[in-house]
Amino acid sequence: MSLKAEMRRLRELDWRELDIKEAGIWPWSLQLVLCLLLLGITFAGMHWYLAGPAKEELEQVRSQEAQLIRDYRSKAAQAANLEAMREQMGVLEARMDTLREMLPSGAEVPALIDNITETALENQLAIDYIRLRGTAAREHYVEQPFDIQVRGDYHRIASFLAGVAGLPRIVTLHDMTLTPEGSNGQDLRLSMLARTYSYRQREEGGS
């Protein structure tokens, strides 16, 4: 059958009288169009049902791949610097050990008070009092404050303060006040708050 005749059949076709049961006698061009349309719908449905989830899963895998590559590069850089990091950690731990040794334990605080007293006497100062206050617990250490009041001339007080700062245990000095003492104009009274510190982990481990 020629193409002209087929086109004429399509023009003369009454679309309202088409019956799916008689599809076998429809014009072949109409049958071809319907087959192509049905095939297209079938492929679209298969793509939506099968390829859609697979595509979404592929995107997730690609995203995970990018994250894994970043993690690998980060860990590779850490591995390359591992030896240097270990050396730095060793240096830091040694410094921490040194600083911890400078912190007196609770049992060593009386000996520290004795050292401060000896320092004051060596500088020929009169001691009014060295009086402990209550301890204050911090996150990593215990703070032990105590009040100090001594009397003497300016140079001896300065030497005393330098001696306290040079003690092998850590002592910090706060709220220092100097007031004239006596009538000669040379003696002074030094009042101050001092603090020392104990490392909490060592305290708890030793108890």
UniProtKB/TrEMBL annotation:
GO biological processes: type IV pilus assembly; type IV pilus-dependent motility
UniProt key word RNA-binding: no
Protein name per Swiss-Prot or TrEMBL: Type IV pilus assembly protein PilO
Lineage, opening ranks: Bacteria, Pseudomonadati, Pseudomonadota, Gammaproteobacteria, Oceanospirillales
Native species: Halomonas shengliensis
InterPro entries associated with the record: PilO (IPR007445), Transl_elong_EF1B/ribsomal_bS6 (IPR014717)
Gene3D superfamilies registered for this protein in UniProt: 3.30.70.60, Helix hairpin bin
Pfam family, one: PilO
Chain segments annotated as coiled-coil in the UniProt record: 55-102
Transmembrane segments: 25-50
Domain of life, per lineage: Bacteria
Keyword annotations from UniProtKB, A to Z: Coiled coil, Membrane, Transmembrane, Transmembrane helix
